[in-house]
Specification:
Largest interface: A-B, 42 and 43 residues
Shape of chain A: globular
Helix content of chain B: over 70%
Number of helices of chain A: 22
Mean pLDDT of chain B: 90
CATH superfamily of the largest domain in chain A: Cytochrome c oxidase-like, subunit I domain
Largest sheet of chain A: 2 strands, antiparallel
Low-confidence stretches of chain A: none
CATH class of the largest domain in chain A: Mainly Alpha
Low-confidence stretches of chain B: none
Oligomer: heterodimer
Shape of chain B: elongated
Radius of gyration of chain A: 25 Å
Order of helices and strands of chain A: HHHHHHHHHHHHHHHHHHHEHHEH
Strand content of chain A: under 5%
Number of domains of chain B: 1
Helix content of chain A: 55-70%
CATH class of chain B: Mainly Alpha
Mean pLDDT of chain A: 91
Number of strands of chain A: 2
């Protein structure tokens, strides 16, 4: 291996692209591989051409990439997540299409659309992308956008660090994307268990792509967790006591604490595997005292809290929307707070249920099985609280409520199948089958994906000033619900029939009908993805009709609805004094909520900087160089990062001052506009009459 | 102390005005970050314990063959005195003893830290010469990773000290520098804390 390593290009050569594979051997697998690479290449070329033609590069750099504003950073996180989501769903569809054609015979076991090795890459990238580069950026993006606004803070505690976190996440995502075109991805699944992923059995670059994407983006997530925690502990507006915070802030706090404590475990397990692979260490090898069970143990110390990191922000969103769209106060606020915190704590005590079959004693298994069942209790409390919130409310069937309803129906099924799996003796029967695959998709799709899409729909007007099309939003939601049911319910059956997960082929014809149903579900999921993209496009085209300059399109009760839509850079002309839980709602009860501040002052904002962008560039170069053994570039980019931090430390950085006059002018214009707009009733909510100024007499939240 | 502490550890105090308030969230944030770092060390400690058995040593050299407790004691002295020396920086910062004293104490810390590193690296080289490289066994892998990571932290701490000396020299002791020195203090003492764990569990326990 080292014999062929060039000092300049490392292990890179012209034989690493899928086009080479296609030229050597034309079949459906290499065509799919080359097709995916082409989508990436043409997508990149089209993107560059579009940005150049529209002259967007300057604004992209000045307004977005160099901005330390948490709201913009949040939007960029979500944009990144949606791009990755597209790839993840398409990969899922290809896997479903493959398995629907994968019925082999004993004589000729290999069958189907793609080759077994290609299939393994598909489920590895699909899992990695969906967890680390879709779910995580979605929730981190949404928290970034919403949290400071709900707390009455101008920004995160550390805005530039926030930018760096985004940059590190994007660098990780870029590594995964480039693996489509340059080289192969790992085939060890999203968990990359050694010893299979050790250097003896996976000598290529695939596992390294995963390792560096995870190490780099994981560092970003750790810093994000710290940032969120400090923001919530230290940057709340005066009067925003903990028990006055909206539920979304509480779940964000849980996420922050869990990120701080869970991400290091992933960093350690990945770094150990990297040392095994690069430096010949023996943490997880078969020989010389290595112990792969230690990998599973450390990985899931992160992995289990991670699934609650994913789900809790969705629970926060559901708490907000169930209250707002029912026109009722959230039922059981305190119980929801306690339940969220309980979930956050208990989630650290259940990780062993991911490897019940690894050979520890029955007593250990039982302890973790019981802990796993206990965590269902606070989750159940939450479901009842949301249902009680909607009970006898004036529920409007808006897009977020469609998602919430889908969540109610499906998540409970997923949760119950989780309780089944929590029993070690049952787990022995169904582990490693598609029953498990069905289970975790059944909690993650209705939980995380529906929750995040509902949140995006809910807060979209705050970010861009216009609502998303309700018609198309609902269609998307129905498609995601239907797509989920058709894709994953058959997998429960297949798992019970004994079909192992991650199988590239099977020989039992009885599986086939279920595979067809699942593949049909895959088609629906693709339609849902297309419909989601169409929702954004059609809403953008109708943006004048959907505009809500009043800023409060849903008659909300939390602080973020008091500002204009789109929300200005400074969010609040003056940091608000919080009097009550649901402060904006209380102001509505008291009469005229849109009172401006008496006096305007200069607002100090962090200055734009390319710091995050440069660090992201260096981190990407480091990851890419390490994957391909380009040592000079690895050393250079590794030294560049502390170098850039040190240089920035030497400079005195002056913040950007927004003069009081500018704030006053904008704020007075907004208040005059609100006064001139006709208020919209609930019945008008989806019509053009909704200009973001609700009928206050209807407020009951 | 009659004054209200805004964050754990020695506070700058109200006489520092804005720097004291700004330090609240920044130094607190750094504590949170170190808690995360502590988890990394915690997992490495646990791993070390799990490889500390004949299976993990896989027939390679063990603690009795490799550890030189005298050298470890010398390293401990260097590192802990380096920690004490940082008190000079913290107090000099809080009571405004001037730039020269700050830089002087920082240099003392850096030199003591470098002394620690010198003996640690010397030990590593000796151990490698005796056949104790991390490629030999799972136990040696975990030993090198844990102690090496701590050593890397000390090295980073020395670089940070040098960067701070550069900042004090060029931009003076302004608010940002005060806050960064407060964070550096927390970091520097954190390394002592980890070392106490390493000294006890990595070296003393297997030799006992």
């Amino acid at each position: 291996m080292s014999g062929n390593t060039s000092p300049i290009f490392g292990n890179l050569n012209w034989n690493v692209t899928p086009y080479t594979d296609l030229l050597q051997h034309v079949d459906s697998s290499t065509i799919v591989g080359a097709g995916a690479a082409s989508v990436l290449v043409f997508g990149a070329i089209a993107g560059v051409a579009l940005f150049t033609y529209m002259r967007w590069w300057g604004p992209l750099y000045r307004i977005w990439l160099t901005s330390p504003d948490a709201k913009k950073i949040g939007i960029m996180y979500i944009a990144l997540a949606l791009v990755m989501l597209a790839r993840g769903i398409i990969e899922g569809f290809v896997m479903r299409a493959h398995q629907a054609t994968a019925l082999g015979t004993l004589a000729q076991p290999e069958a189907g659309l793609v080759a077994p090795d290609h299939f393994s890459q598909l489920f590895s990238t699909h899992g990695t992308i969906m967890i680390f580069f879709v779910a995580m950026p979605l929730l981190i993006g949404l928290i970034n956008f919403v949290l400071p606004q709900q707390l009455g803070a101008r920004d995160m505690a550390f805005p530039v660090l926030n930018q760096v976190s985004l940059g590190l996440t994007a660098a990780g995502a870029a590594l995964i994307m480039i693996s489509l075109l340059v080289g192969q991805f790992g085939t060890g699944g999203w968990t990359m268990y050694p010893p299979y992923t050790g250097i003896d059995f996976s000598p290529g670059e695939g596992v390294d792509y995963w390792l560096w994407a995870i190490l780099i983006s994981g560092m970003g997530s750790t810093l994000t967790g710290m940032n969120f925690a400090v923001t919530i502990f230290k940057e709340r507006a005066p009067g925003m006591h903990f028990m006055r915070m909206p539920l979304f802030c509480w779940t964000s706090l849980c996420v922050a604490i869990m990120l701080v404590y869970a991400m290091p475990a992933l960093t350690v397990s990945s770094a150990m595997l990297a040392l095994d692979r690069y430096a010949g260490f023996h943490f997880f090898t078969n020989a010389a005292g290595g112990n792969m069970m230690n990998y599973a143990n450390i990985f899931w110390m992160f992995g289990h809290p991670e699934v609650y990191i994913l789900i809790l922000p969705a629970f926060g969103v559901f708490s907000e929307i169930s209250s707002t769209f029912s026109g009722k106060r959230l039922y059981g606020y305190t119980s929801l707070v306690i339940a969220s915190m309980s979930i956050a704590v208990i989630s650290f005590t259940v990780w062993l249920h991911h490897f019940f079959t690894m050979g520890q004693s029955a007593g250990v298994n039982i302890a973790f099985g019981i802990a796993t069942m206990i965590i269902g209790i606070p989750t159940g409390v939450k479901i009842y609280d949301w249902m009680a919130t909607m009970w006898r409310g004036r529920v409007r069937i808006t897009t977020p409520i469609v998602y919430l309803t889908g969540f109610f129906l499906l998540f409970v099924i997923g949760g119950l199948s989780g309780i089944i799996l929590a029993n070690p003796s049952i787990d022995y029967q169904v582990h490693n089958s598609t029953f498990l695959v069905a289970h975790f998709h059944n909690v993650i799709i209705p939980g995380v994906l529906y929750g995040m899409l509902a949140g995006i729909h809910y807060w979209f007007p705050k970010a861009f000033g216009f609502r998303l099309s309700e018609t198309w939003g609902r269609r998307t939601a129905y498609l995601f619900v239907g797509g989920f049911i058709f894709t994953f319910m058959p997998l429960y059956v297949l798992g019970m029939m004994g079909f192992p997960r991650r199988s590239p082929t099977f020989q039992n014809p009885e599986f086939l009908p279920w595979m067809y149903v699942a593949a049909f579900g895959g088609v629906l999921m693709m339609c849902a993805l297309a419909s989601l993209m169409w929702t954004f496009w059609t809403s953008y085209r109708n943006r004048t009709a959907l505009a809500v300059p009043g800023g409060d399109p849903w008659n909300g009760s939390t602080l973020e609805w008091s500002s204009p839509a789109p929300v200005p850079e400074w969010t609040f002309p003056q940091i608000p004094q919080i009097q009550a839980r649901g402060d904006w709602g209380e102001a509505k009860r008291a009469g005229d909520p849109w009172k401006g501040p008496e006096r305007y002052t200069d607002i100090e904002m962090p200055a734009n900087t390319a710091h995050g962008l440069l660090i992201a560039g260096a981190a990407f170069a480091l990851g890419f160089a390490m994957v391909w053994h380009i040592w000079w570039l690895a050393i250079l980019s590794f030294l560049a990062i502390p170098g850039m931090i040190a240089l920035r430390g030497m400079r005195v950085i002056t913040p950007k001052i927004i003069p009081a006059a500018e704030v006053e002018e904008a704020d007075r214009r907004f208040r005059q506009q609100v006064a001139s707009l006709a208020s919209a009733t609930r019945a008008d909510e989806e019509t053009e009459r909704n200009r973001g100024v609700p009928d206050l007499s209807e407020f009951a939240g | 102390m009659s004054e209200k502490s805004l964050y754990p550890g020695l506070n700058l105090g109200g006489t520092h005005g804005k720097a004291h308030e700004k330090a609240e969230s920044t130094v607190f944030g750094f504590w949170v970050f170190l808690m995360s770092d502590l988890i990394i060390f915690g997992i490495l400690f646990a791993s070390y314990a799990s490889y500390l058995n004949p299976m993990g040593m896989a027939g390679g050299p063990g603690p009795n063959d490799l550890f030189d407790i005298t050298s470890v004691a010398i390293q401990t002295a260097f590192l802990l005195f380096g920690g004490i020396a940082y008190a000079g920086v913290s107090l000099g910062l809080k009571y405004e003893h001037g730039r020269a004293k700050l830089i002087g104490w920082l240099l003392v810390c850096a030199v003591l830290g470098a002394g620690f590193l010198f003996f640690e690296v010397k030990d590593f080289i000796t151990q490698a010469g005796e056949g104790g490289t991390p490629q030999v066994s799972g136990w040696l892998s975990s030993y090198w990773a844990l102690v090496g990571l701590h050593g890397f932290h000390v090295f980073s701490g020395i670089l940070w000290i040098l960067a701070m000396i550069g900042q004090i020299a060029t931009r003076g002791v302004d608010d940002a520098v005060k806050i960064r020195l407060s964070m550096l203090g927390v970091f520097w003492h954190f390394l002592d804390l980890i070392w106490v764990g390493i000294f006890s569990f990595v070296f003393l326990v297997p030799l006992a």
